[in-house]
Design goal:
Belongs to the ABC transporter superfamily. This is ATP-binding cassette domain-containing protein. The protein is of the alpha/beta class. 32% of the residues lie in helices and 25% in strands. The chain has eleven helices and twelve strands. The chain has an eight-stranded mixed β-sheet with strand order 6-7-8-3-9-10-12-11, sandwiched between helices. A hairpin with a 2-residue loop joins strand 9 and strand 10. The longest helix is centred in the middle third of the chain and has 18 residues, at 186-203. It is globular.
Length: 321
Amino acid sequence: MTQSNTLVEVKNLKQYFPVTTGFLKTKMLKAVDDVSFTIGRSETLGLVGESGCGKTTVGRTLLHLYKPTGGEVWFDGKKVDAHSMSEFRRRAQMVFQDPYSSLNPRMTVGDIVAEPIDVHHLCKTPKEREDRVHELLKTVGISGEQAARYAHEFSGGQRQRIGIARALASKPEFIVCDEPVSALDVSIQAQVINMMEDLQAQFGLSYLFIAHDLSVVKHISNRIAVMYLGKMVELAPSKELYRHAAHPYSVSLLSAVPMPDPEKARNAQRIVLEGDVPSPLNMPSGCSFRTRCRQATARCAQECPALREIDPGHFVACHNV
């Protein structure tokens, strides 16, 4: 990806949280440990992995909702710091996982959607603000007349649409989508995903799409990154990952995706991982996946594998590939 086509660049991002382990004792929990990736203009990067692997923390740290422990975030060629934060906050937004808790129950839907407009002073008159709110609600499939209602009067799918309208209010170029459909019914999931693809085409948006449902990620993503215990273990174009997953963890994840064809499902080999996920507070030496990996060798216990390119655009962190 050329430099001019890159919108977001994350370099060696780290997010450590102090955890109390005893009387006056604290230990650092490495939620995100040395993660790097880029996202191009109008591209969707899918981020997948088990619950607790650090996906959401990557998204929140990238947007500086958490102050990064280490690393850098570059946006449109500029480093994100105290000087560029205000502009970055306008141009980068987030859609949260839970449509029930992410909307203020005391505010009308119109005021919720208008909040970024007010914060960034994007409308000069109340009439202009009202027209903009109605336009945004219409864009996500909700009539402008419903702007005076409250969040509890809407269904889960409608609430997530309101959350997306709020994210679009500041005319962003980049949106972090934190499992935006995982709390919705399957039929509603498809509608919301299709709407997000239409919005991407209409406004030229870039997405970091965080999810644990690999079939959803396959549908919407150009490239997919796989995370395990705070580290990125594989990064590849979407079709390439599904055809030739190289990391043992990615292979196991893909084997668990349900197949609509009963014949194929019967013949497919399900790869069940052995053992439990290690505690992030007591990580195994070397490769963090080695305690559950059938291919682990002595080298895996001594040396943490670096993310290396095995094919054009296909990166894997494994000694045995």
